[in-house]
Design brief:
Helix content is 62%, strand content 4%. A 5-stranded parallel beta sheet has the order 2-3-4-1-5, sandwiched between helices. The longest helix has 32 residues.
Length: 668
């Protein structure tokens, strides 16, 4: 253990001790003494030092907790401090090691005991920008990581050598300032602060190894290479599979050649006896040999053969089928989820399979029309029906059937919602409708009951406050609707007169509170539905919303009557408050992003089930994902993104049927 780790461990032990004494001993005794108790007798004459001890121990604990982040911040503000360089080298080394340990090549090594050859070694003395050129899957990234490891060793031995960093170009776009984007990438991956990174770039203290030039849009690659040239870095490496690197003013090229037939035969022989029989399988399928041109293809084929057998469906399909056949659950479901994750990953220009959904604009157009139909023709209208039913039920029980009937009639305004899904051949979705109805009824019913309680509390407040509530709310609602202060004042006069006439009764305030709360919830929900609809691509223009809301309201009125609600013909105060409150609904019908995101998430359930972590873990267990939930390569990601889950799932099921617990096929 070096001295830095020893100091850090000692400081952590001291922090745990000081924090434990402060929170478990000194603080409870001090609180007991402050609330009328007495200090333990064992303290004796030292009881008077209780509060100073608490302050001192708290200060020591806070200082120990803040020591490391503050010292790191102070060190980062001094770019010349040697601790910055040491910490950066440690983080780069950790990143390179993690990428290697989680790579597909490492999985091949663990299962076969050998790593496929990835091409020539890269030179460590770079006098001009070095271009590593080869087809996808040829092993360029593995060579880049090997070079980074070699440069790390040289940088540790010689303080004058630049710090090597591996940077993925895929997230850069022409609209981004390249230098600022590079500083953000260094801060995110290696925690090299912007000030420190800017100083090192200016002083040419960084050797940048760029991976993934192919992930930059073709129209932006010229600008990207121009930016790289303008930085004038001492050592630059760029990996690509196209000829765009020719735009560099000067460069050296290392060509990674594809595997030849003899290379494949030698690799199979070096893996004996684990790949015995693969010679014969390749001999029966000559076309399969033509696909084994890269270490990636050989690794996928070897893993597929170790999992089961090699049949000619294409190497990538063979890899998917043989890996998925050993996993649990429905194969089609798993492959559909992987395809969904691969499409998101491709759009985000990375290899990460996320278990949390990003913003809906990234994935919303990946869902099918059937699920859109279920949301907008089943769940959405069902939720509105449940909301109207619950509202009329609560209003009927609290304010009478007259007010409930008015609420039912007022619900006709919901037909102005701008969402309507086209019909599809499969007109199912009763569970979606039932779930939407229950959810809408529970939410709006609960909100209405809480609002009724709040209105009762306002009625118990001073008289002047109770009289002021209705005019102020009526004015604000009218002002939001008309955008004219004079019309707002005119619209507030009638409710004000009713408030004065009835004396701001409890029914008036209850109706106002129920109408405001329910109208706001329904408005926000319809606005969220509209926001989701407007985010969809390639769909017909939005139509009218549900036209049968008053029918659902009448159901609520009927339920209230069955439960004993009566008709109040003189309920002017309750009707006034309810109508003023419900008038807020159009103003709340806006597309609030958090609400739209929440409503959109169920659309992904057909593609990505709720047990998402389990799906990802199963894929990792079958080597369909590697390296902290990443796809093995962009080639694999793109193939999964374009596959047909139904066809591949059927192939997987047939393969499962052919598996025998006593069979002689190789197993992983």
């Amino acid at each position: 253990m070096d001295h830095r780790r020893l100091v850090r461990t000692s400081r952590l032990i001291a922090l745990i001790g000081a924090g434990g004494v402060t929170c478990l001993v000194v603080l409870p005794i001090a609180i007991n003494a402050a609330t009328g108790g007495s200090a333990p007798r064992v303290l004796g004459p030292y009881a008077t030092w209780l509060w100073p001890s608490l302050v001192l121990s708290t200060a020591v604990t806070a200082a120990l907790a803040a020591w490391e982040p503050l010292s790191a911040l102070l060190v980062q503000r001094r770019p010349a401090h040697p601790a910055n360089r040491t910490a950066a080298l440690d983080r780069v080394e950790r990143y390179v090691r993690d990428r290697r340990d989680g790579s597909l090549a490492e999985q091949v090594r663990l299962k076969l005991g050998v790593v496929p050859r990835v091409g020539p070694s890269l030179p460590t003395r770079l006098r001009a920008p070095l271009v590593v050129h080869g087809e996808p899957g040829a092993g360029k990234t593995s060579l880049l990581l090997d070079l980074a490891d070699a440069l790390l060793g040289r940088a540790r031995a010689d303080a004058d050598r630049p710090v090597p960093v591996v940077v993925d170009l895929g997230s850069w776009r022409r609209a981004d300032d390249f230098a600022e984007w590079l500083l953000r990438a260094l801060a995110r991956r290696y925690r090299i602060g912007a000030r420190l990174g800017r100083t090192w770039l200016r002083d040419r203290r960084l050797a940048v190894l760029f991976d993934g030039l192919d992930d930059v849009p073709a129209a932006d690659r010229a600008d990207c290479l121009a930016w790289i040239t303008a930085l004038k870095l001492p050592q630059v490496v760029v990996c690509c599979s196209t000829d765009d690197y020719e735009r560099l003013p000067r460069y050296d090229v290392v060509q990674v050649e594809p595997l030849r037939r003899n290379d494949v035969q030698d690799l199979i022989a070096s893996c004996a006896p684990r790949l015995d029989g693969l010679h014969e399988a390749l001999a029966k399928n000559p076309d399969l040999v033509e696909e084994v041109r890269t270490p990636l293809a050989f690794g996928l084929l070897a893993l597929a053969y170790r999992a089961g057998r090699a049949e000619y469906r294409g190497i990538l399909d063979t890899y998917l089928v043989e890996s998925a056949a050993r996993g649990p659950g429905r194969a089609e479901r798993t492959l559909r989820a992987l395809r969904f994750l691969a499409r998101i990953s491709r759009r985000r220009v990375d290899l990460v399979a996320r278990h949390r959904l990003p913003r809906r604009e990234v994935w919303l157009d990946f869902v099918g029309p059937a699920v859109v139909w279920r949301l907008f023709r089943r769940a959405g209208p069902g939720a509105l029906a449940g909301a109207v039913t619950a509202l009329c039920l609560v209003v009927g029980l609290r304010l009478g059937l007259t007010a409930a009937g008015v609420a039912a009639v007022a619900s006709i305004g919901l037909t102005r919602g701008r969402f309507a899904a086209p019909a599809v051949a499969r007109a199912r979705g009763i569970r979606w409708a039932a779930a939407g109805f229950v959810l809408g009824a529970v939410v709006v019913g609960g909100v209405a009951l809480l609002a009724d309680r709040l209105g009762g509390l306002v009625a118990l407040s001073p008289v002047w406050l109770a009289h002021a509530v209705l005019p102020v709310v009526a004015y604000l609602v009218a002002l939001g609707a008309t955008r004219d202060r004079y019309w707002a004042v005119a619209c507030a006069l009638a409710p004000t007169a009713v408030s004065v006439w009835t004396g701001a009764s409890a029914d008036l305030l209850a109706g106002l509170a129920i109408g405001l709360a329910s109208g706001a919830v329904v408005g926000v929900f319809t606005g969220g539905l509209t926001g989701v609809w407007e985010s969809l691509r390639d769909l017909p223009a939005a139509g009218r919303g549900p036209r049968w809301s008053p029918v659902a309201g009448l159901v609520g009125v009927g339920l209230a009557a069955v439960l004993g609600a009566g008709v109040r013909w003189q309920a002017v105060d309750a009707l006034t408050g309810l109508v003023v409150g419900l008038a807020v609904t159009p103003r709340c019908t806006r597309s609030y992003e958090p609400v739209a995101e929440l409503i959109a998430k169920p659309l992904a359930l057909d593609e990505f089930p709720l047990r998402r972590k389990a799906v990802i873990q199963s894929a990792r267990d079958r080597v369909l994902l590697v390296d902290d939930n990443r796809f093995p390569h962009a080639v694999v990601r793109d193939h999964v993104a374009g596959c047909d889950p139904v066809e591949l799932g059927a192939t997987v099921e047939r393969r499962r049927d052919g598996l025998s617990p006593t069979g002689s096929d190789p197993t992983a």
